[in-house]
UniProtKB/TrEMBL annotation, chains A, B:
<keyword id="KW-0418">Kinase</keyword>
<protein>
    <submittedName>
        <fullName>Dihydroxyacetone kinase family protein</fullName>
    </submittedName>
</protein>
<keyword id="KW-0067">ATP-binding</keyword>
<dbReference type="InterPro" id="IPR004007">
    <property type="entry name" value="DhaL_dom"/>
</dbReference>
<dbReference type="InterPro" id="IPR004006">
    <property type="entry name" value="DhaK_dom"/>
</dbReference>
<feature type="domain" description="DhaL">
    <location>
        <begin position="367"/>
        <end position="569"/>
    </location>
</feature>
<dbReference type="Pfam" id="PF02733">
    <property type="entry name" value="Dak1"/>
</dbReference>
<dbReference type="GO" id="GO:0005524">
    <property type="term" value="F:ATP binding"/>
</dbReference>
<keyword id="KW-0808">Transferase</keyword>
<feature type="domain" description="DhaK">
    <location>
        <begin position="7"/>
        <end position="331"/>
    </location>
</feature>
<dbReference type="InterPro" id="IPR050861">
    <property type="entry name" value="Dihydroxyacetone_Kinase"/>
</dbReference>
<dbReference type="GO" id="GO:0004371">
    <property type="term" value="F:glycerone kinase activity"/>
</dbReference>
<dbReference type="GO" id="GO:0005829">
    <property type="term" value="C:cytosol"/>
</dbReference>
<dbReference type="Pfam" id="PF02734">
    <property type="entry name" value="Dak2"/>
</dbReference>
<dbReference type="GO" id="GO:0019563">
    <property type="term" value="P:glycerol catabolic process"/>
</dbReference>
<dbReference type="InterPro" id="IPR036117">
    <property type="entry name" value="DhaL_dom_sf"/>
</dbReference>
<keyword id="KW-0547">Nucleotide-binding</keyword>
Amino acid sequence: MTRLWNAPADFADEMIDGFVAANGRYVRRVTGGVVRSAGAPEGQVALVVGGGSGHYPAFGGLVGRGLAHGAAMGNLFASPSAQQVTSVATTAQRGGGVLLSYGNYAGDVLNFDAAQERLRAAGIPCESVPVTDDVSSAPADERHKRRGIAGDLTVFRTAGAAAEAGYPLAEVARVARLANERTRSFGVAFTGCTLPGADEPLFEVAEGRMAVGLGIHGEPGIGEEDVPTADELAETLVARLLDELPDGVAAAEDARAIPILNGLGSLKYEEMFVVYRRIAQLLEAAGVEIVDPHVGEYCTSFDMAGTSLTLFWLDDELAELWETPVDAPAYRRGSDVPAATTADAAEAAAEDEAIAPSDDASRETARIVVDAVAVIAATVDAHVDELGRMDAIAGDGDHGIGMQRGSHAAAEAARAAAEAGAGAATTLLRAADAWSDRAGGTSGALWGVILSSVADRIGDSGRPDAPAVARGTADAAAGVMAYGKAEPGDKTLVDALVPFAEELGRAVAAGASLADAWRTASGAATEAAAATADLLPRMGRARPHAEKSLGTPDPGAHSLALITAGVADVLAAATEGN
Amino acid sequence: MTRLWNAPADFADEMIDGFVAANGRYVRRVTGGVVRSAGAPEGQVALVVGGGSGHYPAFGGLVGRGLAHGAAMGNLFASPSAQQVTSVATTAQRGGGVLLSYGNYAGDVLNFDAAQERLRAAGIPCESVPVTDDVSSAPADERHKRRGIAGDLTVFRTAGAAAEAGYPLAEVARVARLANERTRSFGVAFTGCTLPGADEPLFEVAEGRMAVGLGIHGEPGIGEEDVPTADELAETLVARLLDELPDGVAAAEDARAIPILNGLGSLKYEEMFVVYRRIAQLLEAAGVEIVDPHVGEYCTSFDMAGTSLTLFWLDDELAELWETPVDAPAYRRGSDVPAATTADAAEAAAEDEAIAPSDDASRETARIVVDAVAVIAATVDAHVDELGRMDAIAGDGDHGIGMQRGSHAAAEAARAAAEAGAGAATTLLRAADAWSDRAGGTSGALWGVILSSVADRIGDSGRPDAPAVARGTADAAAGVMAYGKAEPGDKTLVDALVPFAEELGRAVAAGASLADAWRTASGAATEAAAATADLLPRMGRARPHAEKSLGTPDPGAHSLALITAGVADVLAAATEGN
């Protein structure tokens, strides 16, 4: 929903004021919208675009060299008036005539047509090209009824490049019509936007459902279905667009196209990249030569959640125009980008390190290590949501996911090492490296330290005794404190690790078996983890936010306690087996 | 919330694949992240940035000439591992050493520091500059504890420009530290994001409330308050940042700064422009010279609703580095932007047209016109939500707002014209022009036609008789059908206007007074508007969407019925008064 405004009725005006204040190097305000602040050469055709506000960067963000000369900016989702269009065009024109281009909506057609009449009456040559890229808004044999969505960009961009190249008005209009003929878009939506001051969204789609072909102002679509996976959505979008090739494109496999994956507002870049990954695969599989892909926000609808795919089918002329320099507030291309060279620094593939020699006793222990790390991964799996929730309260919510990735990588690496004949130390060290590499984040680095500290003490020969494990655990506690610059009481996993190591050392020194000592130490860790609820958070967390972080055990300490309890079971089972 | 993924655990990997597929002209994938696909000159310092994924364009979108040489891309909201950072830096380095720069979070510090050790051990000179711009995350005397948010951009950009300019490693690091010293940010949030596959958002802020100083992963802020107006938010942000000038900036009025208003994800461009409008006013009032403002998305948190203001206080060196060419997937500046010239086509201010001559009788009628248009505006005000809702079902939801703007502009224009001595026709014509100019959209254009058609028939002399008004109304119906290319049954205001005009003509011909005839005609319009509920929508609306548009009267017809009823009251009152 829209959250920030002053008076809703002033929103569009104040928005344009702010846009111009932020982009004075590109645009200046005139009655009805904006024109280029740097002007344009005498005699150049002026491209004037426009439409309702609420679609940024359409339309003001597309005014600049190599793109539009002016934009008529209407109220929110409302066509600019004929007076506005006329005013902008009259100011923008440089004696070469005016091309009006805009999305094909009833209100825009009315007002731009009226403006065209007024401009012609005033002696200014004028042509108009409404954009009709949305395939879901009318059948192929009624293309003139289709709406314009993100395909605006291809028409404006090539027409703007043609104007910049000095084409006369009739030729600029021809390029715009050709680009429109060769542009097709298809979109989906999950929620509508809520306009400033409105109580309700423009439209709603049920949770878990997706509207197919729905327009950018909530105009009717062609259906509704369950939210698909990212790959399934890519398949839907590509299939529909490959199903309707424009005139002049005989077959997809002989053609080249620019894909534009446009976000409507709150469907974000990361999701679109996941979808685009599959789109690229599908287009390549269909034999389409992909040119200059675009993934981003080119025509939005406030914070509507939705996306559309546009395919712009190039011919030689359009391809050449596309690559010319362009410099607008929201659309830029450097003029002197060096061509990509073949990368000269080939990556050195990590060599498979040789497995260190080991004896039978250590290889037997390695199997216990494999079991222990597998139990760690299973323990994390069983508690992943709980850990994530705890971290969402105190931190950034990634603890559960990071622990899961790290522990699974560790389990796999341990299994592979043991199968390859590694002893206990090497097996555990491989697990440590895999954990820190795959998990990333703080916890990944710290768990790498913990496992490798223990590994260093147990060796690859003989059966490690309980004091060796206890020493390794003490090293782990010291290592984590040094590496993480944390102390007990800082509300990190140190709060559980230190009591665990101390209790393990004490019990082992008192003569307990490793399995028994470990069980006792794990109890101490569990108690300590629960006690972190009484501590204030530190380490990367500046201050308590509304006291929410009080009363919740730290996820790092909590996961350590859970894991030591799981490992205690493995050790007990291993002891029983002997 | 995040809606599109395949398996949540694969999200980050697939996201990077898609990002690279879309941006092959800029980046190529390596273990741990991306590096420039075009390489960089031998001996150049390599700037390697990074952090968790989920903040696009940070960090991969900032790899390119004039910016970073590589980005280590961690899992969602998780630091990249030391191995990832080392891998990216080793591939990106060109013999001139490596500068590591990243946001100051515990996990990132751990992993980047470990990578620095490994790089140095491998003989690659390496320096590190964590970014600490978020003023809400620690007090000024503990700046080293502060988090990095959108201020990443200023540090990366100037360091990247310094590397491009051939500065040696120590100097690139000096520039980065200087930029960090001179960068301050302050942010607010309204909602948290929901990670792929998660059931709940990372954090929640109560409806109508705003968290102040909250971190981009939901880290603790410093308070919570009611959602302010756009202007009030601007005041909060600017006041806090002017309160803490960096060393080297003695006073705001002697300084120049780049403002960066960053959107976190679903707070959109239009809202930010409204806020920026006031920020620019406040900075100017404080005497700050504003340089190259940025309003957009530079460091996001998926679709979190929030924004932050960064001020980057320039000195001569930083200002010069800032203006160099840059060309990355998500951050570009053309190298040959012509300086803005003084606009040569000065706008012709619309001259105050002279008021046409009129007589006393017509000026008296003009007062009735003023009353009628005022009642129209009041009628629209009273029904604005209802009209918006009806249009949200069938169209784009702008009908209520457009009608409100148009009718108020018309009422004001009518009042001004009558006060200036205009007769009835001129008064109504001014109202017509103001309506279509200010309302925009379809309805604005059509109401302009309606009012001007009636105006043309009533003249500026004498008291208009009922047949003149009836003829004007018939003209209006014909004009709207011609202009809007709509016919009765198309579910537009024509469906109410045509019966209204016909009934008015019939009643007047039968000898009724204008007031009585108008009342009868208005009843016919009301009946016809209600009947539009049984019609299918047409005119710019392709097909019914889930049948939602059935059963709802068309807002255009409905508002015409309401307005004619309001005017009937004015006419009745005027008759009584005589």
